[in-house]
Automatic annotation (TrEMBL):
This is VPS9 domain-containing protein. It comes from Hemiselmis andersenii. It holds the Pfam family VPS9. Residues 85-228 form the VPS9 domain. InterPro entries: DUF5601 (IPR041545), VPS9 (IPR003123), Vps9-like (IPR045046), VPS9_dom_sf (IPR037191). GO terms for cellular component: cytosol; endocytic vesicle. One of its GO terms (biological process) is vesicle-mediated transport. One of its GO terms (molecular function) is small GTPase binding.
Amino acid sequence: RAAAPLVGMIESFVQALRLKNPKLSDHLMVHNFLGAMENPFRSNKLWKGCQDDELEEAMDALERRILADELVYRCVVSNMGQSWEMMDAAFEKKRFCLQFLQPSHLDIKKSHAVHPAVTLSRRVLDRMEEVRAPQEKLECIFRSARLIFRMLNEAAAISNSEAASADDFLPLFIFVVLRSRVTRVHSNIEYISLFRRPPRLGGERQYYLVQLQTAVTFIQNLDEKSVTMDEGE
């Protein structure tokens, strides 16, 4: 009962957003609402005395409630426009044409390429198409990338080598993206970048989002000079 005023404000906002037929540009409207809800949460007796990290988690849950709404998400995606559809389609076409590439073409060690972590990383990244909220999509990228980094670091520890670097990680992550089933890569990256709350879009998660952007750019621009191939290939 104490949460009823908060629930009422949240549901009213979601309903208003649905009626607005939201677009990418409405990310500021969402951010402003989330910012405006901090004081009502703090003053509500259920949240009085809460720590800052608890309030951040509450705002994350609120962001998820708004943007995981089926109608809101469907509107945002369908309103992204033809330019984003064309970019996604062009990337998908390029990726399809590059399915012949093997790990060796990207100078990936065979022991790394056949490791179960690579397949699991791809499956985790594929889940980005199944979830709606930007934080959930970002978490798919983060977990996918961390699986690769963890595998590389474990392999380095076994061989008494230096810890994995970005130079070790990126070729494998490129291969994961190349084999993934995420069809709207550009749209997903833009959606995450705009709608994820700025205070929460940082650190490792932002780093791996940038790594995904780097992998996508590499695949888009890939030609025979970008990979290691024999003359007959």
